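Exercise 7. Predict the joint structure of the components listed below.
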Amino acid sequence: MSLFLGIDGGGTGCRAVLADAQGRQLGLGAAGPANISIETESACANIVAAARAALDQAGRGNLDELTAVLGLAGANVTASARRLQAMLPFRHTRIVTDAVTAAAGALQGTDGIVAAMGTGSVFAVRIGDETRQYGGRGFLLGDEGSGAVLGRALLTEALRAEDGFAPMTPLLRDVLRELGGIEGVISFGLHAKPSEFGIFAPRIVTSGDPAAERIFAAATDQIREMIEVLQQGRDLPVVFLGGLGAHYARRLAGLWDIRPAQGSGLDGALFLALREGV
Amino acid sequence: MSLFLGIDGGGTGCRAVLADAQGRQLGLGAAGPANISIETESACANIVAAARAALDQAGRGNLDELTAVLGLAGANVTASARRLQAMLPFRHTRIVTDAVTAAAGALQGTDGIVAAMGTGSVFAVRIGDETRQYGGRGFLLGDEGSGAVLGRALLTEALRAEDGFAPMTPLLRDVLRELGGIEGVISFGLHAKPSEFGIFAPRIVTSGDPAAERIFAAATDQIREMIEVLQQGRDLPVVFLGGLGAHYARRLAGLWDIRPAQGSGLDGALFLALREGV
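Solution:
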């Protein structure tokens, strides 16, 4: 009997779902991070651990019988994806980016655009069985409108305000106080990971502070322009995912056919695994 | 007899100049990097080595007789500056940022604004004997218009162009080819130091490429606005320093009284040391 495995892996953890050929769920598993561009070996170990846990829960099957689709952060670095592919024990393995599985899960069979707005950001356009990723180029050079990029913009604005280059606002004053003034902000910026910059994002999208509002309005404009480019004059449905997704959806309501997600990235990985055939 | 020491230190090296109370130069010295916010101990060792070399060349004097002013990158992190101050062997030590000594050197006795546009960027306003630094908050959160920030903007634009979010241009195509496509650009961005991003700056300010022109025009606007804030309606002379200084000076010619620098940051450190008195 054929068994199908979906894996959803990223910087914080990886999850596995096992199903039969009819898509009936047989087991779930979870393990540590699986960002393959940073640590391929430990990503591989965690993926296998999550798959084993799903097999254990199902009470049947072996690793080398599985048809697996893995949606992984960092899979756009194809050298790492090739290395991982060679290391994995599954019968058939396909590695795609987490954006591709997120799109498959969110849209299931339909065409559309997915905008995943979390600590990072990435876009995917699904037409027929083809999904193409756009953006998602990382904290320093991309990830437009993401929580980490919004947080960085807030800290930049706080430093500019302290120097008189931008108006001081209550939120900027709070941030400067919380981080210990200019030096504290600089020191935080030297050591913080993207997720730590992202800690400021909820206040940026909800506080109504003038500086936050300016930053979020500029980001919303940028995301609107990017989605317009991806639409290419079409009127594809748009699904916003991630912690900030609902905030962008609210700001951009009415521009396109904005829909809720049909399923998760893990659902999407399994959906694609089932399509890989036996 | 009183001896005065000026030190100019940064991420690539540190230089020392020794003079008598009349400002007559007695000796010069040089040693390795002195960015105190990163490595205070080795910065201290290099500063002392540069000072010893200047004393050797002069053929007289001891470290504990010197009245020293040190202009150092990273001196705005005052905890590091305090630690260094306690470690140094000079009779009298004053630590200021390299922006303060650059301003003192560039303007000598006169009031004015200094805009140092190199790999990083920083501004200083000198009025009477008071010099205040603005900006210079580092690659990630500040350094507006700097070579590193321009380079990062070029790479961001190259990734956006490859995704169709921005127009492709000859320079963007060259950069993508040189770095190995999207993946190469992302990988470069993950590991490159600010100085490595800055390698692209000369092409941005001279190529005439449409993308480069857009990036440099936006940076020039930003620098113009910042200098207007610093002018506060006054008409202070403006000195542009650093590898990109001449390019900004040319773009902004006619807006203010733009002047060449009177002297270097090392000259400025000695100028300030002589003012410290005996």
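Discussion. The two ends of chain B are 9 Å apart (CA to CA).
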